[in-house]
Amino acid sequence: MSSTEIFAEPMLDTEDYLQKYKKQLIELDKKGLLPQLNLKLGYKVYSIRGSEFGAHKSIVLTTDDEHFVTVELGFIKVNGKKHIYPVTRSVDKSAKAKMEYLGKVEATGQELIGKAVAVMKRFGSYFKLCNNCQDYCNMYTEDIGLKHAQKLTDGDKVALAGLLAAIVAFLFAVMR
After folding, report:
1. How far is residue 142's CA from residue 123's CA, in Å, rounded to a whole number?
2. How far apart are CA 84 and CA 126, in angstroms?
3. Nearest-CA neighbor of 21 among 65, 78, 79, 62?
4. Which residues in the chain belong to E strands, given as ranges?
5. Nearest 5°: phi and psi at 20?
6. How confident is the model at residue 56 (pLDDT cuts 50, 70, 90)?
7. What 3-state DSSP class applies to 64?
8. Whole-number Cα distances in Å, 133 to 49, 70, 136, 140
9. For the whole model, what pTM was predicted?
């Protein structure tokens, strides 16, 4: 996903729309990158993101510390309009050093994928500054039982900085 995306419409809720995503999963499975999705397993949950402000963030899942796959917000054009769209891709294990461990969950892969899609369906419109991939990751970690793993988004940080600036301005005005 490009970090230059500014706005996208909500996810479309149709079976045809999800066919491309199902093909992504089938390809990952053919390459041996997915565990058996119908078995309840222990999944380690990580996040990974770029370091710059507004950088894309993804959730990363693994059962064996060898095969890592993302659960992330992406985009697709449908009839000329950009919509948010689920994406799952492999991540090389060498990227583990850049990942932040969030916790462990016991679930089937089908449950985790289903929750990723369900969160995306209720996510609404994407806007880079206040409803973005960082917010999606927070919503997803809460849905899989890792609410404690939620982080301040860049939008939250901007809002807090604005609030702090307003308080400082108020104090200077009062103290004159």
Report:
1. 13
2. 7
3. 78
4. 7-8, 40-49, 57-62, 68-78, 81-87, 90-91, 100-108, 126-127
5. -65, -40
6. confident
7. coil
8. 10, 12, 5, 10
9. 0.83
Catalogue the E-assigned strands of 13-67: 40-49, 57-62
3-state secondary structure of 119: helix
Look over the chain and give the mean of its residue pLDDT values, rounded to a whole number: 87
- Rounded to 10 degrees, the C-alpha dihedral 4/133/34/107 comes to 180
How far is Cα 109 from Cα 83, in angstroms, rounded to an integer? 25
pLDDT in tens, 129-173: 888 898 999 999 999 999 877 665 656 555 555 666 677 777 778
Pairing of strands 7-8, 40-49: unpaired
**What pLDDT, on a 0 to 100 scale, did the predictor assign at position 43?**
98
pLDDT band of residue 47 (cuts 50, 70, 90) is very high
Q: How far apart (Å, rounded) are the C-alpha atoms in residues 87 and 34?
A: 14
The three-class DSSP label of residue 86 is strand
| Model pLDDT, residue 2 | 46
